[in-house]
Amino acid sequence: QLELVASGGGLVQPGESLRLSCLASGTNVGYYAIGWFRQAPGKEREGVSCISSASTTKMYADSVKGRFAVSRDNVKNILYLQMSGLNAEDTGVYYCAARPINTCGSSISEEAYNLWGQGTQVTVSA
What we know:
Distance between the termini: 40 Å
Strand content: over 45%
Radius of gyration: 13 Å
């Protein structure tokens, strides 16, 4: 059974960068497409990014396109979300999740992901 643990969150100032990690265990994460999601206080969870199992597809929400970059190392069983140019709207709890398939599909929809890791808090504030 695949298990995911997100880490790397913290408090940063606007404009700064942060790199989140998603460490997988239990089985090789290379079989799965992995999505990143976030949930801001009082808001619904939204899809941020998806990376296919072989990294051939990388998808981003319009709100983070050009600022966030997703990557993975299937040998080390770990994924990353590099976030730059952070602003207050990026504040929230960030989660990584696995799809039971190796492709991202046409959208980053949480209904398509059935295995979720614990989240990590990202706070962007001056």
